[in-house]
Structures are given as C-alpha cells and as structure tokens.
Write a structure and sequence with these properties.
6-stranded antiparallel β-sheet, GMC_OxRdtase_N, 7-stranded mixed β-sheet, alpha/beta, 19 strands, P2Ox-like, FAD/NAD(P)-binding domain, FAD, oxidoreductase activity, acting on CH-OH group of donors
C-alpha cells in the first residue's frame, strides 16, 4: 500500500472469513470500491498443512492471543485463526442449511430459542447461491428434517467408504435415517481422500476444500473493484461529531498506525472479535460501544453444547480416509420420541493420535494410535440458548468471555442415545470429551439482528440501529445458534445483505 498513512474505499470489510470473503465476492461486479482488511496473512502451502501433529501438538498455525475466562480469570487459547480465509482454512467443509424451525420461536428444555427477523424462505434463494459458490456436495430426500429447496445440490454426495456404509446400514436397521452430509470437500478419488484425511481441523495443502479464500476471495480479487490489505489489525472505528456515522477505521499495519476512510464499514471478524472491536470503539457519543444503545452488544454469546465422541471396536480397524460423510438429525426437532430438540450427529474427519493427545496428555502416542485406528469419530451438537449473562467483555487489551453452558440436559440425552446406537453398530467402547470454553468455532450471537432497536443490535439487514454506515455479516447477528455448523448460513446471509450494502455505498 506504499507509505501513505490513509487508505480509502467505498466499502471496508473487516475480516476475510466466511462472511467477509463471501460479501467481497457478492460486491465484485457492483460499482463500488471494496477493501477487505485482514489482520493475518496468506497461509503458506506446505507439507505441514496436512500433518495433525504440526497443528495440534506444535501449534504451527495458531495466531490468536489468549482470551480470558470471566469465571476464574484464567487465560485460554481460543480456537480462532488469523489468516486470509479465517477459520474456514481449518474447518471440515461441513455446509448444512439451518432447518425451517431454526428461524422460528422454538421451545427447548431450558427455555425459548427466539424467532429470527427473517424466515428460512427469505434466505432460501441465497442458500442455493451459496451452495453453488462453495461447491456443496449432497443429496435431498434422506434427512427427514431437510428444508424445502428451490434447486438441487450442485454436486452429488460424497460416497461413504466401507466402514461408514456399514455403520449407516446398522443405523437404518435401528430405524434411524442416516444421510450424506452436505460438504464442501471436492474429493473425487481415494487419493484425494487420503490427502485430506486430517483436513477437518487442519489446513488443506490442495484446493479440495471449499473455503472462503479459494472459493470467494480469490475470485473476488480478480475484479478491479476488490482489494485486500493483509497484516492490518483494525483496532478502533471513529465516528463523526454526532456519533451516528463512522468516518474512519484505525489499524495497526506493520509497525505503524494507519487510517482507513470509507463510506460503509462492514465488520466480520468473528462473534468475539467483532464485539470487542465495537466495544473498544466507545466514544463520548457512544460510551458503551458502537451500536450499543440496547445494551446487548457482546451479550447472548453462543457456541453450542458439543461433545467429541469415539466408538471403539478393539478387533476392527477403521481404514476410512475421509470419514465426514454421514449425519443424523432424527432427534433434531421435538417429536414423539423426544419432547424437546436434542441436536445433530455428524462424523468427524478421521481422528489421529495427535488430535486426541491434548485431551489425554498422559496417554502415550502408541496407545492413542491404537485407539484411533479402531474408532468411529463423531461430533455431537445441541443448541445452546441466548442469555444476557453469556457475553464478551473487554478489559484493556484483554478479551474476557463469560460463558456458562445451558440447555445441557438434552445434550446428555443425545450422547446417551448415540452411545446406544453406536454400541448396537458394533463399537462396545464409548469415549467422550465434552468441549469447553476454548472450543468456539461455532460462535455467534454477540450483535443480534431484530426489528426492535431496544432488543437487538442490528436491523433485519444486519445494519446497526444506531450507526448509519455500520454492518455486521459474521455469526454475530444470529438471534439463536441452531445446532448445526453456521458457515453456510453466514455465507447465505452475506449474499442476502450485499445489495443493501452496495446501495448504501453509492
């Protein structure tokens, strides 16, 4: 960017993860000058990308500073990564749509999951567009909770490998409805699968994984309307004399402070960092943070109740290369067998010893390898509910997270039911690890969208009720968390609000 201390654009997008990169792609052909600002840099392509030990034991790609647990003041290492493409560089490419009921007021065991300010039908065309952009593999008709679709999946489902097909057959005999999970992994050969075995949690050395950088940002940068500024950490947003409009962002850029002036400012830094940035941007006109007249900025933080689950058969090895092809939603909504929603089952990418060493540090690697060579690996999620006391705060340079899990009884019941089903499928040993405060890859809710400015931070189009030219397009806007991976919903929403942002920018 040269030696200038001021950069200008029509639209500044803070963050290059799923929301920011998808928005840049959606704006690429519109008559606006877009600048994506990313605090990280491009993640290198190297053989270590696919080595779980480098990622989970050596911390090769960890870039986040510690956050602090508000309950005890202790530091923890969050599961966030500052690279171009954000957390999608490390996700497993799971790209489901939320269900119709996820957008509606729903009774749960511990309370109400609130209604969204727009419906599934409103978002559906953009789900279809996002599936095409991220090359989603899937098939309709297998999952009884599948919502209506205006177009088929762009690509056929990834087939199960033999061990997973045998598991699916057992589940069907038990009266369940296993389905091929919607996935953005373009694995057309067994060699591709072997190359991507660890890609649920590590970067991909190839472009087999559909993520924000390769599917959205790189194509957007081919337009002369989109630019990218890396290694620039936005630290503050500055408002005009009335405090109702942002005039510039301040950023730390390679050892100096620069100023970024724009017409519209879009924040997409992740639910924690977005809230922290807006809280740190407090001024005389906005003493509690930008866009915080409701007092809800940073509150309603949600991350899912989640459990890593392993079913082990000591006498049968699992040679599956890419395991993340099967899901179950039989207990996702309330029904005859469960009074309240329980949640989702999805397979994990095949676990390796390095993946589980952190949870069992006392165990020797040879023993861990013996277990994971014989395990089915599953991820279970149950919806957590928004509460004011679960929140993000800032304390000087520190980010503090107050989080007490809720709606945990349904999660325990989900674990119990899955344990029974997995045992019946031939895996007598069950090992589980409940995820804690540091597992926050599904974070959302800290700047909720709604129609009432007193009860929400953003309007239904994700524009601040208080600050005319402030928008948020990451998971912060979610009024509820559902119990599914949020990435496709974030992408679809960015496509939905892009025309509104473009219109405001001209």
């Amino acid at each position: 960017m040269g030696d200038s201390d001021t950069v200008t654009a029509d639209v500044v997008v803070v963050g290059s993860g799923m929301g920011g990169s998808t928005l840049a792609w959606a704006l690429r052909d519109r008559d606006v000058d877009v600048l994506v600002v990313e605090r990280g840099r491009f993640l290198p392509r190297e053989v270590e990308n696919s080595q779980a030990a480098e990622m989970f034991l050596e911390g090769r790609y960890k870039t986040a500073e510690p956050w602090f647990d508000g309950s005890n003041g202790e530091a923890f290492q969050p599961g966030v990564y500052y690279w171009v493409g954000g957390n999608t560089k490390f996700y497993g490419g799971s790209l489901p749509r939320f269900r119709v009921t996820d957008f509606e007021e729903t009774q749960h065991y511990d309370g109400i999951s609130p209604k969204w300010p727009f419906s599934y039908a409103d978002l559906e065309p953009f789900y279809s567009e996002a599936e095409r952009l991220y090359q989603v593999h899937g098939i309709d008709g297998e999952d009884p909770t599948e919502p209506p679709r205006s177009s088929p999946f762009p690509l056929p489902p990834l087939p199960h490998e033999p061990t997973i097909e045998r598991f699916a057959s057992s589940l069907r005999r038990q009266g369940l409805h296993p389905f091929h999970t919607p996935n953005g992994m373009n694995l057309t050969t067994q060699e591709h699968r072997r190359q991507s075995t660890a890609s649920d949690g590590t970067p991909s050395q190839t472009d087999h994984k559909s993520e924000a950088e390769n599917r959205a940002l790189r194509p957007a940068l081919e337009s002369d309307r989109v630019r990218l500024l890396t290694e620039a950490k936005v630290t503050r947003l500055l408002t005009d004399a009335k405090g109702t409009r942002i005039v510039a962002a301040e950023a730390e850029f390679r050892g100096r402070t620069i100023r970024i002036a724009a017409n519209q400012f879009v924040v997409s830094a992740g639910a924690v960092n977005t809230a922290a940035l807006l809280l740190r941007s407090a001024d005389e006109r906005n003493p509690d943070g930008l866009g915080n007249s409701s007092g809800l900025l940073g509150r309603n933080y949600m991350v899912h109740n989640s459990t890593f689950f392993m079913g082990v058969n000591p006498f049968r090895t699992n040679t599956t290369a890419w395991q993340k092809t099967l899901g179950i939603n039989d207990w996702y909504v309330a029904g005859p067998s469960n009074e309240y929603p329980l949640g989702n089952l999805q397979m994990l990418g095949k676990l390796q010893a390095a993946h589980v060493k952190g949870a069992r540090p006392w165990a020797p690697m040879w023993a861990l390898k013996a277990v994971v060579d014989r395990s089915l690996d599953i991820y279970l999620t149950t919806e957590d509910l928004p509460t004011r006391d679960n929140r993000v705060r800032v304390d000087g340079d520190r980010i503090v997270v107050d989080w007490t899990p809720n709606n945990t009884a349904p999660h325990s019941e989900l674990v119990r039911r899955v344990s029974a089903a997995v045992r019946k499928a031939g895996y007598p040993i069950i090992l589980t690890e409940r995820m804690g405060i540091a597992t926050n890859s599904h974070m959302c809710g800290t700047a909720v969208a709604g129609t009432d400015p007193a009860a929400s931070v953003l309007d239904p189009n994700c524009r601040s009720h208080d600050v005319d030219n402030l928008w948020v397009v990451d998971g912060s806007f979610f009024p509820s968390s559902a119990a599914l991976n949020p990435a496709l919903t974030i992408a679809a929403n960015a496509l939905r609000v892009a025309p509104h942002i473009a219109s405001a920018a001209v």
